[in-house]
Write a structure and sequence with these properties.
InterPro entries: HGLS, YdcJ_bac-like. This protein is α+β, with helices and mostly antiparallel strands and 463 residues long. The protein is 45% helix and 18% strand. The protein binds 2-oxoadipic acid and nickel (II) ion. The site of nickel (II) ion (NI) has 7 residues, from strand 2 and strand 8. 2-oxoadipic acid binds next to strand 2, strand 5 and helix 16.
């Protein structure tokens, strides 16, 4: 019988999840439709240039989702399910620190890591783990109740996990098992119809709507699914024209005339959805919860550590200026700061070591018998070598904190007298049961491997 490989499972899972989410959250379908229209228009207007950061096939199919779980045990199970799809934990995000929008979670993203795998299907899931041990959010009594509640639930049926482990070991599944695996995996992320314990949910909601969304119910669910768009400013205008109320900003870098870098995102607020509630006296009444929303993103070039440090510094400058000039539009301040401090071309980003590129020998390189120059920049300038930008495959903590706000109504209660528990990438690796990979190291490896290939082709030991 034919085997369905891991990337095919991943692509099929992304499609089915998208179908399910579209049925459950119709506004998501609008977002996908408008994104497709914008992408077609951009492709028409800019031609091949529009595909510089990914083929239109990849971009059209591209989605990321987000889920939230309660315990290391649950996170480890998530890693088994996504591992079956060839997705690995990359990056550590601490959302507890964000100033005005702290939420009691630490996060990673499960995604493919190899360039070919990303090109086949880049599906990724931003995955957050609740931190009940953080005393800034939970006192000892609430922590104990929460941990007891979480220990008693089961997010993933054993059959799903067994199939996941088989898919990982065999790098795929026979068609019939693949079908069952996909069915169970999509089911695990549907919104449950089970009545929500109203008093318990409200208790957690006082701390944070995200804590209630994770620990107030006995299942998990995908809370948004995000298409990728080639012009997010245009998308924002068209969604607003259709009467969909977006959050008031696009998160991340400003719109400007230089290259797109990192990630720009925007979202619409979670919609109230009817949910059955169990009351204190055991009865069931109808209520409503806002837990699922829509988001869209535009992706740019991956920045090196130095590039990222510059990005963070520029954000700080924009914050300062925005505080000094409250009447000015933040987007205008940001654009001015960027135009002043950030190189306006790919060549300059590369020359200053601020962004990642892959390099390859040009098909139409000079054939005049002359010796190629030694410096990489010269090789590129004289047409021996082509540089292609590496697309940013990850997330931004500050934007993520902004996106979490999409389903936070009121701010919760915090005890800032308390010391937060120290959590870092190593701690999260322990919780997830596998190494949380460093995104910079992955981009760097991709760049280095391409340079090594160029060097070999030129008969050199170093490029
Ligand atoms: C995740 C929010 C972060 C993004 O794109 O930055 C995120 C969540 O709300 O669970 O998805
Ligand atoms: Ni997201």
């Amino acid at each position: 019988m034919s085997t369905i490989g891991q990337w095919q499972l991943r692509a099929a899972f992304a499609v089915r999840l998208s179908e399910m989410y579209g049925r459950e959250v119709p506004a998501y379908t609008t977002l996908v439709d408008v994104s497709r229209e914008v992408n077609e228009d951009v492709l028409r207007a800019r031609g091949a240039d529009a595909e510089r950061l990914g083929s239109i096939g990849r971009v059209t199919a591209e989605r990321h989702g987000a889920i939230r779980v309660g315990t290391p045990r649950e996170l480890h199970q998530v890693a088994r399910v996504f591992g079956a799809l060839g997705m690995h934990p990359v990056g550590f995000y601490d959302l507890r620190e964000a100033a005005a929008s702290a939420v009691p979670v630490v996060s990673t993203a499960f995604r493919p890591v190899d360039a070919e795998e990303l090109a086949r299907n880049p599906f990724r899931v931003f995955t957050s783990l609740l931190t009940p041990a953080d005393p800034r959010f939970f006192d000892a009594d609430l922590r104990a109740r929460l941990e007891r509640f979480l220990a008693a639930r089961e997010l993933f049926p054993p059959e799903l996990l067994t199939l996941a482990d088989r898919a990982t070991a065999d790098r795929g599944l026979p068609a019939e098992d693949a079908e069952r695996f996909l069915e169970l995996a999509v089911q695990a992320f549907e919104l449950s119809a089970e009545p929500v314990d109203r008093a318990w949910y409200r208790t957690l909601e006082k701390v944070s709507a995200v804590a209630a969304d994770i620990g107030g119910v006995r299942s998990t669910h995908i809370n948004h699914l995000t298409p990728r768009v080639l012009d997010i400013d245009e998308l924002y205008r068209r969604m607003t024209d259709r009467g969909i109320e977006m959050i008031d900003t696009i998160q991340g870098p400003p719109a400007w005339k230089g290259p797109d870098v990192l990630l720009r995102q925007t979202s619409f607020r979670a919609l109230a959805e009817p949910r059955a509630m169990r009351t204190e006296d055991g009865g069931v009444v109808s209520g409503a919860l806002r837990v699922r929303f829509g988001e869209v993103e535009a992706r740019g070039i991956a920045l090196t550590r130095a590039g990222r440090a510059l990005y963070d510094e520029l954000l700080g400058r924009v914050d300062e200026q925005a505080a000094e000039q409250p009447a000015a539009a933040r987007a205008d301040l940001a654009r001015a700061v960027w135009e002043r401090y950030l190189p306006g071309s790919e060549e300059e980003l590369a020359a200053r070591g601020l962004a990642y590129f892959t390099y390859r020998l040009a098909d139409d390189r000079p054939r005049d018998g002359l010796e190629p120059p030694t410096a990489l920049a010269e090789l590129v300038r004289q047409g021996w070598v082509r540089a292609e930008p590496v697309v940013y495959e990850d997330f931004l903590p500050r934007s993520a904190a902004g996106i979490f706000q999409s389903n936070l109504g009121a701010e919760g209660t915090r005890d800032y007298e308390q010391q937060g528990t120290a959590h870092d990438a190593d701690w999260l690796s322990g919780a997830v049961g596998r190494e949380v990979l460093d995104p910079f190291a992955l981009y760097e490896r991709q760049q280095d491997q391409s340079l090594a290939r160029v060097a070999r082709a030129l008969g050199r030991t170093a490029p």
